Amino acid sequence: MASPSLTQTQSRSPEIRKDPVNNRWVIFSPARAKRPTDFKAKSPQNPNSSSSCPFCIGNEHECAPEIFRVPPDPKSDWKIRVIQNLYPALSRDIGSKKDGEPDGEMRCTGDLGRVVTGFGFHDVVIESPVHSVQLQDLEPKEAGEVLLACKKRIEQIKEYDLIKYVQVFKNHGASAGASMSHSHSQLLALPVIPPTISARINSTKEYFDQTGKCCLCEVQPKDLQIDVTTHFISIVPFAATFPFEIWIIPRNHSAHFHELDNEKAVDLGGLLKLTLRKISVQLNNPPFNFMIQTAPLQAIDTQLAYIHWFLQIVPQLAGVGGFEIGTGCYINPVFSEDAAKVMREVNVPK
Catalytic annotation on 308? Predict the structure, then answer.
């Protein structure tokens, strides 16, 4: 079946859909849309020169301290390096005190709000020693090793009781927030649970209380599915906040990303590679962000029944305006079913 035409797309009535995972309303407004197949990034991402890149092999001395590498032998060439961020958002100095307050304790500041000491970890995962190699260029096993490096770092960080949440994320392209073109991901470990995470937990709990089921364990409609593997499924969510937003979800219930095993890491690496290649081919190598949405490190047992981790990919195809900032309600010009159909039909060159 052919992809929806511009006339067919624009003739559909707008809908306002509720996202049961994030407790967010999304306006689907096809009258604002091009044909779903016409969405492209304005210009491809042009990588910066590798001549002075500190992430390239041989320039390790220009980086912040290394935490670990893969393989671990310092005498062999590395495939992955996990390092401290040279410009961290938070301080890993847990010995510091301020006004006699113990680290991590929340303090009131009169009527202005509350303050927590800015303790945390901000690390970088360098995904390849070669400047021109992107995550989508890696073999499934190699992409899986990048994911396992993130898992290992989370396992190290969770030994610190003050850390409540670890966000793994990747920015690809300058307009998506990347300051370095060498392929890398980041981890930011926080002493608080961010409000978006709390809202998602509350929303999935509400669904669980009403149905007795995890909303991400529910069978996803065929028209939202893109690809399925042994352990994972990629979909465009029913109430996608952004055009061509994609989620990769474990098919079996799992609350914590860091419980990923080696077999599932390879399977996820293969599906992530395929998905990123499809995005690159169909959308003209757009800037994108991906985020691993997982449970707080100290989630209690009752919460684990309705928290289901997933990997969220957001191509940067449309800006956020005053309406979205003011209301927290987003406008998506592409119906989720149309975006999923387009992505299912992308032919990826071998």
Answer: no
